[in-house]
Design a protein that fits this description.
Layout: E1 2-8, E2 17-19, E3 21-23, E4 36-40, E5 57-61, E6 67-72, E7 79-82, H1 87-97, E8 101-105, E9 122-124, H2 125-134, H3 140-147, E10 151-154, E11 172-176, E12 179-188, H4 207-217, E13 233-239, E14 248-250, E15 255-256
Parallel strand pairs: 9-10
Antiparallel strand pairs: 1-2, 1-10, 3-14, 4-8, 5-6, 6-7, 11-12, 11-15, 12-13
Length: 257
């Protein structure tokens, strides 16, 4: 059992970056993961849950994650922006969405979906491959981009990551390399996995219903079924204690329960 892949998403809801190692922040997050977010004039996130238009945006990042190139899918005209001075980017994004938005920055805690289980999400490659079997029109990379997990495990069976959470009233301790984690719960999914990550188009109307039926059918016999109030749950939410600040997580690190 080992860590096979690390994906960071520097701007919440936009394209990811695959890295071989990452440092743990004082806030218990992966350094540079979701450290930027796009919000509207009320402070509400502009993300894939809110609008499929997000999926049309493509980004690449400089090594320092302070600069990025943006373009609209299918358009070769890239625009380069300094993320730490986002005035020009804010205007470009506002024109793209058709309403006022701005980029915000939080390097310590980032902008996780779950403020309690604010650590990286974890899945196994075998689980992703299982979903590919359910939806043969998709491939592994497409499924990765739909579910947007941070850490991918290798050397395990499908849904092995369901070992990483316990009953509702307790956190499950485990480790990757020399870093301590707590497993919280199977991650509740939203509309994003049902959409094409390039265009935002709905994949099939029955995606969620089909996924739930097969997730229930394939739930391991040893899994804690009580944690599934529904079966549109996939990957595991975690947290990392403050004691782990500054430690490095690396591809190839072993997993221990």
């Amino acid at each position: 059992m080992r860590l096979n892949r690390i994906d960071l998403y520097p701007i919440k809801s936009l394209d990811g970056v695959s890295v071989t190692e990452v440092r743990i922040t004082a806030g218990g997050t992966l350094e540079r993961d979701r450290i930027y977010a796009i919000v509207d004039d009320t402070g509400a996130y502009v993300n894939g849950k809110r609008t499929g238009q997000v999926h049309l945006l493509r980004t690449t990042f400089a090594d320092n994650y302070k600069e990025a190139s943006f373009w609209v899918n299918g358009d070769n005209a890239k625009q380069d922006f300094v993320l730490t001075e986002p005035g020009r980017l804010n205007r470009w994004l506002s024109d793209f969405f058709g309403f006022g938005v701005k980029l915000i920055f939080e390097p310590r805690n980032g902008f996780p979906d779950d403020s309690v289980a604010s650590g990286p999400t974890i899945v196994s490659e075998a689980s992703l491959q299982e979903v590919v079997q359910w939806f043969p029109e998709l491939n592994l990379e497409s499924v990765r981009r739909r579910f947007r997990t941070n850490l991918e495990l290798g050397g395990v069976d499908p849904f092995w990551e369901d070992h990483l959470f316990g009953p509702a009233n307790e956190l499950k301790p485990f480790g990757i390399g020399n870093i301590a984690f707590f497993g919280h719960n199977p991650c509740q999914r939203c509309v994003v996995p049902s959409r094409d990550p390039e265009s935002g188009a709905q994949f099939v109307p029955s995606f969620q219903r089909t996924f739930m039926a097969l997730r229930k059918k394939r739930l391991p016999s040893w899994a804690n079924a009580d944690r599934f109030n529904h079966f549109y749950r996939f990957a595991v939410n975690t947290s990392i204690p403050a004691s782990e600040e500054g430690k490095l997580l690396r591809v190839g690190d072993s997993i221990r329960l």
